[in-house]
Amino acid sequence: MSPFDIPYERLANQHLSRPIHKTAGEVVAWLGAIQAQDYAGAKWAVAQRTKGLTDAAMDRALADGSILRTHVMRPTWHFVSPADIRWLLALTAPRVHAASAYGYRTLGLDQAIFRRSNAALARALRGGKQLTRTELASALEQVGIDASGLRLVHLVMRAELDGIICSGARRGKQFTYALLDERVSAAKTLERDEALAELTRRYFTSHGPATLQDFVWWSGLTMSDAKNGLEMVKRRLVQDVMDGKAYWAAASTPPAKKSSQTAYLLPNYDEYVVGYADRAAIFDSSHTEKLDARNNPLFQHTIVLNGRIAGTWSRTLKKDAVVVELSPFAALTKTETRAVHAAAEKYGEFLGMKIRIAG
Length: 359
What we know:
This protein has helices at 6-13, 24-31, 39-47, 55-63, 85-106, 111-125, 133-142, 149-161, 180-183, 192-207, 212-219, 223-233, 271-274, 334-351, and strands at residues 34-35, 68-72, 74-80, 131-132, 165-167, 176-179, 237-242, 245-250, 263-266, 302-305, 308-317, 321-328, 354-358.
């Protein structure tokens, strides 16, 4: 493998260039977890890795619990599989708590308050109820817990991390929460070493070629845990060393085909970008000034050509169509333009809307 191969191998292993799954749950389980604080973008991220899943089908998957949206791994929302949620929380929640400790202290939140808030939320949701965050705030206020501002954010996130609540179906455009025990009654548990090995295996199988540092960033685990996880599963992986860095991937992965004919319009926080600490293989830092003020491609909707980020894009929903505005870093060839326009048409099919392309 050469540095030129890395993007193509990642596209294939993430099932962007080799989509084989039919359901959202299969994609989420394959990748281990998918960052999902931007719900609209995360739905498109999943759908691109399937054979034709639509936006409406993604909403149904969240509504029926085929996928769950909760805080896990890093202090943000992820899509996770119901079958994996308990062992993922047990493995990664302590690290999220550590990352959130300063916020807890600043807001005057301690273990006693979390015990009371978890109990109040469990009572409010018992019996199959699914409530919005505003309704959860009312339940907390009724028992004398201040749930204003960022306190509510942390109280609800803590209940997610403690395995008390998880996502319910959306009510209109509002997200709801449900009791995890009622939503997912038979989720498996794993011993800690088993969970560590499983998450490590899934990451390098679905995201490889990737480095140990990439895995630490993605998982939120300590370097020590990441090293232990890799040690447990490396016999099932292959290693390539390039420029002094060790890259790991699944041993059984077939070679990826190199093609310049395919383009992708990836959403912000797509796993192809956010899944790695080092993005040099897919992004030329000389283009940083062409991004927004945050200077990081993971926050952007990105145009990917030949496996590399070649520009950004945005969408505007109109009554009769979705307008996709393209901002390539350099002028596109006719072949590249056709490929990008084909990717935009796929996005229109996902939304069930006509596409108008600008830029």
